[in-house]
């Protein structure tokens, strides 16, 4: 794989993010307050795992983020769905 400055930036960002994740946090970014922000880097973590399968921390972090999204993340539940393009 040819690396560019952008590729190296992303890889270094992911290494820092995954290594800074506390072991007791399921989300990729602990105490972020938003459900979508940490999840948005999940695809990049999966790609990093695919390109560097010797580093199992990527796979663990991605799996824990998925567990958080499916089983822990808050949901609106009782709010009615909102349609921004539907006629009134």
How would you portray this structure in words?
- The chain has one domain.
- 52% of the residues lie in helices and 0% in strands.
- It is an all-alpha fold and 88 residues long.
Primary descriptors:
88 residues; 52% helix; mainly alpha
Topology:
Blueprint: H1 5-20, H2 36-39, H3 42-51, H4 56-71
Helix pairs in contact: 3-4
Compact description:
With 88 residues, the protein is mainly alpha-helical.
String of helices and strands: HHHH
Number of domains: 1
Strand content: under 5%
Instruction: Classify the helix fraction into a percent range.
Output: 40-55%
* Radius of gyration from the alpha-carbon trace, in angstroms: 16 Å
The overall pLDDT average reads 82
Uncertain regions spanning at least 5 consecutive residues? none
The structural class is: mainly alpha
Rough outline: globular
Count of discrete alpha- or pi-helical segments spanning 4 or more residues: 4
- Which sheet architecture does the biggest sheet show? none
Alpha carbon gap, first and last residue:
52 Å
Instruction: Find the count of extended strands (DSSP E, 2+ residues).
Output: 0
């Amino acid at each position: 794989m040819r690396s560019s400055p952008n590729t190296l930036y992303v890889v270094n960002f992911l290494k820092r993010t995954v290594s800074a994740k506390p072991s007791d946090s399921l989300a990729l970014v602990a105490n972020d307050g938003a459900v979508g922000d940490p999840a948005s880097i999940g695809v990049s973590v999966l790609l990093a795992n695919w390109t560097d399968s010797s580093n199992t921390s990527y796979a663990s972090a991605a799996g824990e983020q998925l567990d958080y999204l499916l089983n822990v993340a808050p949901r609106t539940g009782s709010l009615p769905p909102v349609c921004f393009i539907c006629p009134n």
